[in-house]
Amino acid sequence: MRAVLAWKETIREQCVYDLAFKPDGSQLIIAAGLRVLVYDATDGSIIQPLKGHKDIVYCVAYAKDGKRFASGSADKSIIIWTSKLEGILKYTHNDSIQCVAYNPVTHQLASCSSGDFGLWSPEQKSVNKHKVSSKITCCGWTNDGQYLALGMMNGVVSIRNKNGEEKVKIERPGGSSSPIWSIAWNPSKDEHNDILAVADWGQKLSFYQLSGKQIGKDRTLTYDPCCVGYFSKGEYIVMGGSDKQASLYTKDGVRLGTIGEQNSWVWTCRVKPDSNFVVLGCQDGTIACYQLIFSTVHGLYKDRYAYRDSMTDVIVQHLITEQKVRIKCRELVKKIAIYRNRLAIQLPEKILIYELYSDDSSDMHYRVKEKICRKFECNLLVVCSQHIILCQEKRLQCLSFNSVREKEWVMESLIRYIKVIGGPPGREGLLVGLKNGAILKIFVDNPFPITLLKLTTSVRCLDMSASRNKLAVVDEHNTLLVYDIRSKELLFQEPNANSVAWNTQCEDMLCFSGNGYLNIKASNFPVHQQKMQGFMVGYNGSKIFCLHVYSMSAVEVPQSAPMYQYLERKMFKEAYQIACLGVTDSDWRDLATEALEGLDFETAKKAFIRIRDLRYLELINSIEERKKRGENDNDLFLADVYAYQGKFHEAARLYKRTGHESRALSMYTDLRMFDYAKEFVGVTDPKSSRMLMTKQADWAKSSKEPRAAAEMYLSAGEHLKAIDIIGEHGWADMLIDIARKLDKAEREPLAKCALHFKRLKHHGYASETYSKMGDLKALVHLHVETRHWEEAFSLVEKHPQFKNDVFVPYAQWLAENDRFEEAQKAFHKAGLQNEAVKVLEQLTQNAVVENRFNDAGYYYWMLSMQCLDIAKESEEQRGEMLKKFERFQHLAELYHVYRSIQRYTDEPFSSHMPDTLFNICRFLLNNLTKDMPPGISKVNTLYALAKQSRQLGAYKLARYAYEKLQELHIPSRFQESTELGSLTIRSKPFHDKEDLIEGMMCYRCSTNNPLLNNHGSVCINCRQPFIYCASSYDVLPLVQFYLEEDISDEDALSLIDLEVPHTDQRAARWQDIDNGDLQSLRMDEGLDDEEEDPFTAKMSFEQGGSNFVPVKVSRSVLRAMSRRDVLIKRWPRPLKWEYFRSLLPEVSITMCPTCFKMFHSEDYELLVLQHNCCPYCRRPIDEPN
C-alpha cells in the first residue's frame, strides 16, 4: 500500500477540528476557526467560506441524502445549511456544541453539547433535549438509523434509541482517565451485526456489538487517537491523533501502514465516499488529501493462483476446479510465492511457509510447515521445495526453511524477472532476467549462474518451453523474441506483447497478450488472434490463465486455429496432439475426415473414437482388415471413404478406375439413384435392367410411394410383392383386377388375394376368388368366419361333408351370443350330442344357481330328451343314458314343482290356490325321500305346507310340518312366524279334514292314502303309482296297464281301435274330441255300470302283498276297451309305450303330445292360452309334433 499526496492546503493560525464529505464526494466541508469552509474535493480549491457562528466551529456533518449539512460551534448554536450553501435554521443548547450526526435513514440530526444532546428533524418545530451526566465528545448513528451511540469524557459509551432513551451502556475499564474520543459504526452491509469502533485516550481501539458485547480484545495504540473513520464498504479503518500521522488499519484493528506524516496532531480524518482518497485535518490548519494505492501481491504456479485479500488474508484459487481457500494471517501480507505444494507468505516480522496436506492435485488444505521469524527487505520472493529465494535489487539470497543462508548470487544489473522452472527437490532451476538484457539460469545447489542469452534491451517477461529447448522473452519494447536455447538462434519475433507463456502440454505452442488481444502461435504458422482484456500469465492445455485488475480467470480457448494450420500442411499427427488439448466436436470431425481422406487411418480412428462415430470406425476397421489380407489399392479404399462421405460420383469414378463397376452399381441402387445407375449400366444389359426395375420398386415401396411400387412390381412380373403392397393399402378394386387376370393354376397369388379380401372384409370378392380356385373348404371357412350362415348352410346342403365345419361354429356363435337353446339345437344338428348335453348342463346349473327353477325344470326335461336321443343312436351308451333319462325326468318335475313353492316363500303375492300349493308341497315331500337336489329347500317346502295345511284344516299335517321344521335350520325371516305357528296349532284338533283324505284315494284299490307317504307317490295298499295332474297336482282317475308279452304296440292299437260297441245308448253318451295331436276324453252323462268290465277284473290283486303287481291285459280285454278311455304315452325307441286307462271317463283329461304330461283339460286350455305353449315342455301350440 502506498499513499500519494493528491493536494494540500493550509489555513493559517486555525485548527481544523472536523471535516465532512458531501455524499457524492464532490465537496468537502471543513470546520476551521469561526467559519465553515467549503472546498472542491478533487483539487482542494476553496468554493466558499460560510459565516454565521460567533465562536470556534467544532463539528460539521452532512445528511445522507446530500440536501443539507449542519455545523456546531462553541457559541452553543447549531446552523443548518442547504447544499446550495444557504443557512436556513439555527437553534441553541446551554453549552458549547461538541459533535453533530445525521441519521442515515430519517435524516434526524443529533447535536451534542457538554451537558445534553438534542434530536431535531425537519418536520418537528421543537428540539427534544436530554440531559447527560458527562461531557459528550463524539456521536454516531447505526446504519439502519435506529440507535445513536454517544461517547463521553467519563469513559462511557451510551447507546440510545431514536427517542433518546438509553438502551445499552458500555463502560471502559479506564473510566474518566481514558475518555472516549472517537467512535464509528462499520458501514458494511455484509456484516451480520452492527459493529462499533471505539477509540479512547487510554490509547486503546476496541470493537463492540450493538448489544454492548466486546468483539475480540482491545488493540493497544502508541498514541492518543483523535479520530476514527471507516472506508465506505467497511473494509479498512483510518485513524489519526497525537502521533502526528494518519494510519490505515484493517476492520479488525490490524495496522497496515502510514498514510501521511504531519507536523502537528491530526484532529480529523475522513475517507471520500466510494474511493481510495483520505483527507486529514491538523492542529496547524493543514488539510491534506492522499490517494491510497493498493498494489497486487500475488503468485502463480501452473493452475494455482495465490493473492492478497483485505491486506491481511491470502486466497489460494485453483484455476481449473474454481475452488478457493482463505488463509487468515491477521498481519499485513507483503509478498506471496507459490510452487508445487509450497506456499510462502511474507509478513512484516516473519515469513510463513505452508504445505498441502496431500499430494492430490485438487487438494486445497494448507498447513504451516515452517516459520522464519526475521524481518526481510526484498523486492521479489520465490519459494522452492526446500528453500526460499529473496531478491533485493541485484542480490539473490537462498535461505533454507530454518533461516540459514545457504547461497548468495550478485548480478551485474538489476533483477527484473525471476521464475522457478522446476527440477528435483533441493536442486530447482531459476530463470532470471536482468535489466541489462542478460538471461541467466541458476540452480539452487550451484553457486555459479549460467548465462543463456544476452539481449540488448531490458527483460520484462520470460518463459521456457516444456522440453527446455526454446526460450520466449518479452523485452521493454513489447517485442516477443523466441530463441532456440542450444543454438542461440532467433526463431521468430512478434510485436505488441506484454506477457508470454508456453503451453505446458504442447512443445510447439505459446501464447502472448498485448494491446487487448490474445495471440496463439503454433510452430512457425501465422499468429491466431482473439480479443482479451488483461494479462495472460499461464497456458495449460486449452486453458489460458488471465489476470484482469485483481481477478484471475481461466479462459477456455479452443485450439481450433492451430489445429487447422497443421491440417492444411497434412500434418495429421501434430494436428491430433493439438486437438487433444481441447477442440470442439466439429473440429474433431474435420480432423477425422481429413486424416481419413489422407489415408492416415490411425489418426482418423483415434479422432472418430473421440466423437463416437461408429459408422466410420467400422469402415476403418474393415479397411484395416482388408489391408491385413494383402489389399493395397489406395484408390479403392478412397472410393469407399468417398462413398461414406456422400461424394458418390467421385466414388463411382474411382470404382470404375479400379475395375469394380458392380460396387458402383450397388451403391447407386442402394441410394435409390436409379437414373445414375441406368446411365452407369447403359441399355445393353436386360438382366441388369430388370434387376434395377425390381430394386426401384423396392425403393418406391420403402419411400412411401406404394402405388408406383406396385405398378413397377407388376411390370417386373413380381405378382406376390405387388399383391402384398396393394393388400396392405386396401385397394380392393386393383386387387380384384389382378385376381381376375391371374390364371387359376397360380394358386399362391390367388390365395394371397383372397386372404387380403378377407382381411379387408370384402366377402364377395373373397368368395369369388376361392370359387375360381375351386377351394370349397376355404369357402366354407370364409362363410363361417364372416357369419354368412345362410350361404354356409346352402353349401352344406350340396356338400354334406362340411356339416361339422358349419354347424359347430354356428352353435358356438349362438352360445357366445346367449342363444343357448338354439346353440344346443345346432350342436344337436351337427351330431355333437356331447356338446349339446354340455351346453344344457351348463344352462341347467346356471338356472338352479340363479333360482330360475322354471327354466331348470325345462332344461332338465330337454336333457332327458337328449339322453334319449343318444340312447337311440348309441348301443354301448344306452343303459347309462336311459338311467340319466329317468333321473333327469324326475329332476325336471321336481324343479318345475318347486318353482311354485319358491315364489310363494320369496314373493309377496302368490298366483296359486291354497289347495294347489298344498298338493304341490305334499307331492314334493313324497318325492324327496332320498337325496335333496341342489337349490330345493326343505324348509321352504315344509313352511309352505304348514301354512296351507292350517288354512285348509289339515291340522295334524300342519303339526307334523311344524315339528319337522323345528329339526331344521330355519332362516331368521321365518323364525318368528314358525314359532308362533307351532304354538297356535296346538289349539287346533289333532286330525285332518275328511274331504282332504278322500282326495288321496287310490283308483285301483279304493284305499284312502295318508296325506304324506314315506313310500313316495304310490298307494300304500296296492303299490299302484299315482298319476298327477301336471298343473294342480290332484290325483287323476287313471290306472297304468301293461300288455302281455306277445302283443306288440301296433297290435294293441289296432285291437283298441276295433272297440266292440255294447249298446247304442252308450255310444250316444261318449263324445270323442280329437284336436289335432291332443287326445281328450269327455263324457256327457253318467254311465250305469250294467256289465262287468273285463279291465276291472284285471285290477284285482292279492291283498297284503308287499310287492307291486302291475295290471296286465290280454287281447280280449284290449278289444273290450274303448279308444276314448285309453291314453298312450308313445315314447320313442328304445323306450316302451305306456298305456293308461281312465276309470272316470266323465273327467276330461288332456295329455301333451311332446312331454306326455297329463292335465285336467280346462287347466290345460287356460295355461295354453296364457303361455301360447305347453306349460311344461314349452312346445309352441302350433308346432307339428
What does this structure look like?
Helix content is 32%, strand content 30%. Among the domains are: 2-293, 7 Propeller (Methylamine Dehydrogenase, Chain H); 563-678; 682-774, no CATH class; 833-1008, Serine Threonine Protein Phosphatase 5, Tetratricopeptide repeat; 1038-1146, no CATH class. The chain has 1185 residues and is an alpha+beta fold. The strands form 16 sheets. A 4-stranded antiparallel sheet has the order 1-28-27-26, with no helix packed on it. Strands 2-3-4-5 form a 4-stranded antiparallel sheet, with no helix packed on it. The chain contains 32 helices and 63 strands. It is elongated. The termini are far apart.
Give the arrangement of secondary structure elements.
Layout: E1 2-10, E2 16-21, E3 27-32, E4 35-40, E5 46-50, E6 57-62, E7 68-73, E8 77-82, E9 87-92, E10 97-102, E11 109-113, E12 116-120, E13 128-131, E14 136-141, E15 147-152, E16 156-161, E17 166-171, E18 180-185, E19 195-200, E20 204-209, E21 214-220, E22 225-230, E23 236-241, E24 245-250, E25 255-261, E26 266-271, E27 277-282, E28 286-293, E29 298-301, E30 304-309, E31 313-318, E32 324-328, E33 335-339, E34 342-346, E35 351-356, E36 366-372, E37 380-383, E38 387-392, E39 395-400, E40 405-410, E41 415-420, E42 429-434, E43 438-443, E44 450-454, E45 459-464, E46 470-475, E47 480-484, E48 490-494, E49 499-502, E50 509-514, E51 517-522, E52 528-531, E53 535-540, E54 543-548, E55 551-556, H1 560-568, H2 572-581, H3 585-597, H4 601-610, H5 614-628, H6 634-645, H7 648-657, H8 661-670, H9 674-681, H10 686-702, H11 706-715, H12 719-729, H13 732-741, H14 747-759, H15 763-773, H16 776-785, H17 789-798, H18 803-816, H19 820-829, H20 833-849, H21 853-873, H22 878-906, H23 914-927, H24 938-952, H25 955-967, ...
Parallel strand pairs: 56-59
Antiparallel strand pairs: 1-28, 2-3, 3-4, 4-5, 6-7, 7-8, 8-9, 10-11, 11-12, 12-13, 14-15, 15-16, 16-17, 18-19, 19-20, 20-21, 22-23, 23-24, 24-25, 26-27, 27-28, 29-30, 30-31, 31-32, 33-34, 34-35, 35-36, 37-38, 38-39, 39-40, 41-42, 42-43, 43-44, 45-46, 46-47, 47-48, 49-50, 50-51, 51-52, 53-54, ...
